[in-house]
Target: Homoserine kinase
Amino acid sequence: MAVYTDVSEGELEAFLKEYQVGDLLSYKGIAEGSENSNYMLHTTKGAYILTLYEKRVERQDLPFFLGLMEHLAKKGIVCPLPVQRRDGQLIGTLADRAAALITFLEGVWIRKPNATQCREVGRALAGLHLAGADFPMSRPNALQIEGWRKLWAGARDRADEVEPGLVAEIDREFAELERDWPTDLPGGIIHADLFPDNVFFLGNELSGLIDFYFACNDFYAYDLAICLNAWCFEKDQSYNLTKSAALLSGYRSVRPLSDAEAEALPLLARGAALRFMLTRLYDWLTIPDGELVLKRDPHEFIRRLRFHRRIRSTAEYGL
Amino acid sequence: MAVYTDVSEGELEAFLKEYQVGDLLSYKGIAEGSENSNYMLHTTKGAYILTLYEKRVERQDLPFFLGLMEHLAKKGIVCPLPVQRRDGQLIGTLADRAAALITFLEGVWIRKPNATQCREVGRALAGLHLAGADFPMSRPNALQIEGWRKLWAGARDRADEVEPGLVAEIDREFAELERDWPTDLPGGIIHADLFPDNVFFLGNELSGLIDFYFACNDFYAYDLAICLNAWCFEKDQSYNLTKSAALLSGYRSVRPLSDAEAEALPLLARGAALRFMLTRLYDWLTIPDGELVLKRDPHEFIRRLRFHRRIRSTAEYGL
Model:
């Protein structure tokens, strides 16, 4: 559930005067997105999402995120199109926060995706990688190994509270990942957070990719490894090989994987599991109970990390 | 901000099959309403609000609330129309909760209403009173003096924590209200919670009355007294006589007030201020910090109560 900034109709109407989106009909704060405040708007010209950027998003990164969405949308990727203001800018100010208006995409996110939907996600991810290749801006991935180290430094002292033995296990994991992490895989713009709640479907048809606020430059195969973590585990943490094979096959039908990329997948998937485990662990240990922020259990990703550590061949992913 | 129950797309699609509203396009949890979980839906036939009734609303009261909305909407009051299921019922079950689908009303609620808007609210309130007169069901007001007594019993011990001397002041207030409360004013269906966040406007035109979950049978003038509390105080708790006069004049242009009703207004307004003070005080003292429920400051209504206690003539309300 989003913590959200209240916006009065007067300040919103003044804000909308900077755009050519017609007259305001209604707006509702929506309980989605954990980083920003989001409103759904109806105007006489259609439906939009208004985002107010809260403290977790750096204002200096906004031109990258919004420029990327605009670039991808113009290349036919089904993602929100930031609406240009009359002055050509994509970013304004509302309620003392940076704010942007983006087009509303119909579709629902799927709590229990099927293999067909996983294939579509693979295809869409590869399409995003190809479409992003000529995007002129870049943004380093703040959540690479060095970033994980910082999160771990803030959580390590108390990590054994979550599970006895976790400190030693994660220390070993860091040592191995730092030793073996690849350095020369193909890379470019990645989404870096393509979980089911960031992908909309209408039936089995993928109708939208949203939430580009972790997008950055990194290995394409790392983005794919994030998706294996995000889409292929069932609620009981079993790995669904059918979905995994479909996701990988969908990806490769649009962008072939090199041998080096395929071989790196288990290690990249360990890294991805560690990355999501660490942000959850950090929040779990540092956010006071009762804050209006959803604290997600880090255990899921500890188990996923262990799964990937046992992988001996990419055939186990259905590749 | 609403506490809300998550609904999967699968269970929502199954739920919608009971209705003739077309196919689901999107749904978003909306951060409005403190009692229930609300989703905004787009379907191929239009926009709807889906409400899941949480524990604070009694399931046995739902036929009254939804039947009333249907009755009023059919009489031309701009309120949501509950959508009938294929079996003719207005109430279904979703995610183990009673649930209903109502039409979506465009409009925004006004943080700082002007006098024209106050006049429209008065007119709409009177229209609602007239339109409800032949609604066949009734529901006693659980928040009359006896109900306030129960809230006070649960808060009295700690009320002086909120403001020293409050216990003695409110005890005196109860004694006077119980002694002087009218018994024979005109009454019928009242909204009982017509605050600005429950009234939508498009410009100065009133486009919707929502949230009928406190509606009940009581004196019409008491509903009007609630509106004086809800619409005519400024943020600094000063009373805006222009807005008050406009609200009363708007009301009387649709339904005349008898002398007895007019004379009772100061006392009814004290009662209304006490009622909202008490629910806020009770929540303030009993809901643990950090629950996902908005706790509103009871002081506003202590000050409003004191204002009404000093009223010597209804001319001070602009009547």
Summary: The longest strand of chain B covers residues 24-30.
